[in-house]
Automatic annotation (TrEMBL):
The organism's place on the tree of life at top rank: Eukaryota
Pfam family, one: Snf7
InterPro entries in the record: Snf7_fam
Keywords: Coiled coil, Cytoplasm, Endosome, Membrane, Protein transport, Transport
Protein family per UniProt: Belongs to the SNF7 family.
Region of interest: Disordered: 1-35
Name of the protein in question: CHM4C protein
Classification lineage: Eukaryota, Metazoa, Chordata, Craniata, Vertebrata
Gene: Chmp4c
UniProt GO BP: late endosome to vacuole transport via multivesicular body sorting pathway; protein transport; vesicle budding from membrane
Main localisation: cytoplasm
Subcellular location: Cytoplasm, Cytosol; Late endosome membrane
Protein's organism: Furnarius figulus
Amino acid sequence: MSKISRFFKGGGSAASKGRAGPSPQEALSRLRETEEMLSKKQQYLEARIERELAVARQHGTRNRRAALQALKRKKRYEKQLSQIDGTLSTIEFQREALENSHTNTEVLKNMGYAAQAMKKVHENMDLNKIDDLMQDITEQQDVAQEISDAISNRATFGDEFDEDELMAELEELEQEELNKGMRDVRLPSVPSTSLPSRPDKMVPTVTLIDGYCLFAASTRRRAEDEDEMKKLAAWAS
């Protein structure tokens, strides 16, 4: 049986047996300290390996004995470094497992507190009273809805008049206002003197329609404008 097995099976000191186990916080703190110590050991071994390599290169074949001793020391340091890597992996796994266990324990503890609080709250509750209360609330909501519907309905006071008669009366009032406005309109008087005549252009005819003058455009003037446009287009081309 190895020393480690005897230790875990009861080979510890009496003080360790009499003392209670460490708390999760204490164990996690110890594991982090161990990880930090091993990390520093890794840095030390890596520096020693680089140093032994430099010594081996320095001596080379000129001093084979010294060079070989340096390489042997490098191999031992590399072996220790590999062992430390494995130990760090184990400690890291143990630390993560302990952290998860501690977290689960705290979660379960808090859930237990919450369950006890809910149980204490529900002790003073009667399901029959709750059903009666909910029924009363529903009835009062129905009454409130009926009151709201009654208030929101449009009042029908004075709706006994015929809407067709009212529309006819409104149209008569509008027609009276329109006729009154037409009577107030003053049209301009037609001049008594004749318009002056021009020898080179045709006098536009004047037509009176309901008091308004409509002037026909002169045909000759339009022809002259078209001739000028044709001359301008020919010059531009």
